[in-house]
Amino acid sequence: MPSSNLQVPRHLSRFMPTSSERGLVLLTGARQTGKTTIAHARYSDLRYVNLDAPENREAVRATPTASWATTFGSAVFDEAQKEPILFDKIKYAYDGGTVDFSLLLGSSQILLLKRIRESLAGRIRMREIWPLSMSELAAGPGAAEAEPPLLDRLLGPESPDQVLRNTPAALTDQAEASSRAAEAHLLAFGGMPALGPLDEDRRWEWLRDYERSYLERDLGDLARLDDLGPFKTFQRLAALRSGSLLNYSALAREAGLAVDTARRYLEYLRLSYQVFLLQPYTNNLTSAVVKTPKLYWTDVGLLRSLTRRRGEADGALFETMVAAETIKWLRTARRDAECRFYRTRSGMEVDLLIENEHGLLGIEIKSAARIGGSDLRGLRQLAEAAGKAWRGGLVVYRGAAVRRIDDRLWAVPSRRLFTAASA
Asked: Which domains does the chain have, with CATH numbers?
């Protein structure tokens, strides 16, 4: 990713309502993923109130509800979870018609959702922001916008076969260079926006600092832990298992914790957007399927920092990146699709299975530049089991070209799947 102080364009901008629309919006996501930046860029006409500042919290508490519209009006409230009374006052002003728009920002999902259930249920639209995606990084700092990735077209009404037949096998030199650089950055350092202008040593330092600030700030919002040592041990062990089936008993045993404590710690990581769980696909293709979720880390850079892994990305890191890029797009674009994985007890597996109104799209992830016959076995078996619901299968790999392998079966380089289809 080129060094620059210019902002990288975010897909989320096009999915955020304008301040002229009547509505309340919650934007949540991990700390340092760009919530405040996108709020300033998208809503520069609104007053910005940071509730990290004690005097701003006091001003919110001191403002009578009847004066809310004249004192604050339509505004952006950062770290909204820090002041509980905010939600009741916004509700009063919104229901009374004196305020038409407010944007709430925060990284403490559990506290925000609790406040919303208590005060703003049915009134608020929720949006999530994630670390930078490959297509955003490929667009680069200062670009007007980032085009949707090829993945988005593959989820539309046109069949994957038709889409990929019309997709160039190779990119132009410039597009190839930007997509390679974006993927290399993601696999080496992840997608935290602050890393872009830094040199390599300072990137690692930033990631280590993030670990510490996470324990002090985000975890502090979620729980009161007298001793952070057991949580830090659990966090690192969970990071080492990114891409694996989630086994609470094994995690708890290795971390020296009770199983219930391990479950609670993992929920803290999920609520603070450090991890996500991929659920198994169990819709009657066969009864002999694994029903345990898989655990993935959201950001490869934070995963590397926690596990002290540098150098070339291995298969587990590559799989984590592909799974995370898929989830980022589905959640950001709010596509009506479910991403799961498929695995039978006999060991047949497809890494990702995306289901929407058009059918099933299978994705096998291979951290190699070449594809062998064994890499296709799971997709072929699943295609047969799915029947008419099957739209096609992709082997996402580290090769150079988009190419057809067989009927409704394609090899697609990861840097092509997650960058602009028209490049």
From this structure: 11-129 (3.40.50.300), 134-417 (no CATH)
Helical H runs in 96-149?
A: 109-115, 134-139
Put simply, whether the predicted model's pTM sits higher than 0.85 gets the answer yes
Query: Distance (Å, rounded) from C-alpha 413 to C-alpha 400?
Result: 6
SS3 109: helix
β-strand 338-343 against 75-78: which pairing, if any? unpaired
Q: Which residues pair with 354 in a beta bridge?
A: 339, 361
CA pair distance 242, 257, nearest whole angstrom: 19
- On average, the pLDDT of the chain sits at 92
**DSSP assignments along 87-105, one per residue:** HHHHHHHHHTTS--EEEEE
Q: Is the pLDDT score of 192 beyond 50?
A: yes
Helix runs in 166-295, H state only: 173-189, 200-213, 219-222, 229-240, 248-255, 259-271
Q: How confident is the model at residue 284 (pLDDT cuts 50, 70, 90)?
A: low
Q: Could you tell me if 187 and 300 are in contact, meaning their C-beta atoms sit under 8 angstroms apart? A: yes
Contacts of 323 (CB under 8 A, 6+ apart): 243, 278, 296, 351, 352, 365
**Strand pairing category for 338-343 and 349-356:** antiparallel
Q: Is the pLDDT of residue 213 over 90?
A: no
d(CA 30, CA 416): 26
